[in-house]
Amino acid sequence: xxxxxxxxxxxxxxxxxxxxxxxxxxxxxxxxxxxxxxxxxxxxxxxxxxxxxxxxxxxxxxxxxxxxxxxxxxxxxxxxxxxxxx
Length: 86
Fold this sequence. Notes:
The protein is α+β, with helices and mostly antiparallel strands.
């Protein structure tokens, strides 16, 4: 997944969620080498590792994907409003 593909995925998920907050993007998980080699260029804020206000978990056991808020549960909290791609 490239940074552009990540942004496209977040936008598509937000659009598809409509009024169902549980279907909004809730957590981005990234396998460690994928973060280092591909996604480290995304604009991440440092109040916690976040991209477009979505929490990012990086680890060797992670699969690179985006979970909905319902799938992420408390792992993606606190949830914030999705920001636009820059």
